[in-house]
Amino acid sequence: MRWRRCGEDAALLDCDSLEQMRAAHATVQAARPDGVVDLVPGARSLLVVGAVAAVRALLEDADLSHPPPGESREVTLDVHYDGEDLSLVASDAGVSPDAVVELHAEAVYTVAFTGFAPGFGYLTGLPEPLRQPRLESPRTRVPAGSVGLAGEFTGVYPRESPGGWRLLGHTTATLFDPHADPPALFAPGDRVRFRSVR
């Protein structure tokens, strides 16, 4: 791991892996050192705002090989598995479309970090056969609620936007509402399940 200063009161921790970042994030959240203003997890990094020295000392003595146990919120989303790329994902995985739905819906995912758009969570825990690359050519319009996958992640588009993830289906759940408290449905550390509906 490597620390890099970010302004007067923050530092970016570069981690060796996504698991190490998740462990660092969970460790700091559990300890809640005085003076920490914000934590912003990324795929292989953790931005710490405030109390950087205390966080560094905490993490130097921590086991960051896996996240510490703790309570996490669980969210279940109903999904209509009717996505444009369902057959493509099945073909590349060497299984039937029904098997893709079963694999995707049986897994339990963890929100590793958020980004790309307000409310978009990068969910880890995708079964190995479904770990596939982005589309060669991104779409200019992906509807809100689209459930997709790319690489090691699955996720849900919170609003209409361009995107290159392979689409498996859609949900009617609201992922981001600026008037809600909290506005985003997903937060890092949450567990997510997808339930197949007709």
Automatic annotation (TrEMBL):
SUPFAM superfamilies xrefs: Cyclophilin-like, PH0987 N-terminal domain-like
Phylogenetic lineage: Bacteria, Bacillati, Actinomycetota, Actinomycetes, Pseudonocardiales
Domain of life from the UniProt record: Bacteria
Carboxyltransferase domain boundaries: 1-186
Stored PANTHER family: 5-OXOPROLINASE SUBUNIT B
Protein name: Allophanate hydrolase
Protein's UniProt keywords contain Transport: no
One Pfam family from the record: CT_C_D
Single GO MF annotation: ATP binding
Keywords: ATP-binding, Hydrolase, Nucleotide-binding
Keyword Transmembrane helix recorded: no
